[in-house]
Amino acid sequence: MIRDIARAVVGESLAGRIWRRLEIIGDIAILRKPIDLELDVELYKKLAVEIMKRIPHVKSVWLAVTPVSGGHRVREYVHIAGELRSETTYREHGCLFKVDIAKVYISPTLNYEHIRVARLVNPGEEILNMFAGAGLFSIIIARHSKPKRIISVDINPDAYRYMVENIELNKVSDTVIPVLGDAREVARSCSNCFNRVLMPLPELAYEYFEDAVISLRSAGVVHVYDFVTAESKIEAISRAQNLYLEKCESIGIRARVLKSRIVRSVGPRYYQIVLDLYLEKTS
Ligand SMILES: C[S@@+](CC[C@H](N)C(=O)[O-])C[C@H]1O[C@@H](n2cnc3c(N)ncnc32)[C@H](O)[C@@H]1O
C-alpha cells in the first residue's frame, strides 16, 4: 500500500527507494530520507499527507534527515505532517512503551530479538542489560519469562526517564531495576553477578565486551550485537564468531556460540549480527 502511495506521489523510480523506508511507531510514521538523495521536503510532505489519509491511526509524520548517531543513538527529524508531537506509545509483544522518537532510540527492527531473547531466559536468572534504551528488552523479558532481577542501564537521561515510566506502565518494578549511567561502570561494580548479559549497542559491543565478562558469573550467556563488513551473510556470521572467539581466547575465557544470526542488512556488504555466547571463566 505504501508503495502505491509513493508511486502516485513521487513516481515509479523514486518510489522504489522510498517506500521501504517507512516505520510506524505507535501513531507516528517516520520516513527516512536516503542519505544520497537531495532533501525535497515538499515532496515528502505530499507523501506524508497521503500516508495519513490511508493509514488513519497515523496522527503525525516525521522525516528522519540523519541516520541514528551520537552516544544516545538518536536521529534528527523534520516534522512534515499532522500533529506536532514526537512522543507516542508503542506496543510490542503485549507491552506498552512510551517514547519520544526524537530523544530516545526506538526501532521495530529489534522486535524479533526482544522476544527471542525473552524466551531463552530461565526462571530466577539475574540479568544485566547494558544498553537498555526505553527498556524494551528488559520489560519484555520480565513480562514473558520469570527472571529474578534485570539491571537495566542507559546513559541517556531521556531514555532513563522513559524506562522508569515504562517499568511502571508494565508493572514490572519488582523485577526491572533502572540505572542511569555508563554500562562499563555498572558492569565493573558488580563482578560475577549475572547469569546473562545483553549488549544491544553495536558501536560499543567489542569495547565493552570484557566489562560484560567481568559482570558475568563463573558461567553464563552474553548476547552481543555488532556490525560486520562482509561479502555475504555467511561470511558476516563467521567473521563475527571469529572476532569474539579470539577475544575470549585472549582473555582466557572458554566460549561456545549457542546461536548466531543476521539481525538486518545495514547497507551494501554491511550487516548487524547477534551472537549468543556461552562463556565459562576457567580460573
Ligand atoms: C541501540 S540503543 C538500545 C536499544 C534498546 N535496547 C531497545 O531494544 O530498544 C543503545 C542505547 O545505549 C545507550 N548508551 C550509549 N552509550 C552507553 C553507555 N556507555 N552506557 C550505557 N548506555 C549507553 C544509548 O543511550 C541508547 O539508548
In total, the number of domains comes to: 2
Helical segment count: 9
Which architecture of the largest domain does the CATH hierarchy give at level 2? Answer: 3-Layer(aba) Sandwich
Which fold name fills CATH's third level, the topology of the largest domain?
Answer: Rossmann fold
Overall strand count: 13
Low-pLDDT stretches? none
- Record the strand order, biggest sheet: 9-8-7-10-11-13-12
The CATH class designation of the largest domain is Alpha Beta
What do we call the CATH homologous superfamily of the largest domain? Vaccinia Virus protein VP39
Q: Quick check: average pLDDT?
A: 93
Bound molecules: S-adenosylmethionine
Rounded to the nearest angstrom, the radius of gyration is: 20 Å
Shape: globular
Distance between the termini: 58 Å
Task: Describe the sheet with the most strands.
Answer: 7 strands, mixed
Query: What class, by secondary structure content?
Result: alpha/beta
Q: How helix-rich are the residues, as a percent range?
A: 25-40%
Task: Write the element-wise H/E pattern from the N-terminal end onward.
Answer: HHEEHEEEEHEHEHEHEHEHEE
Provide the β-strand percentage band.
25-35%
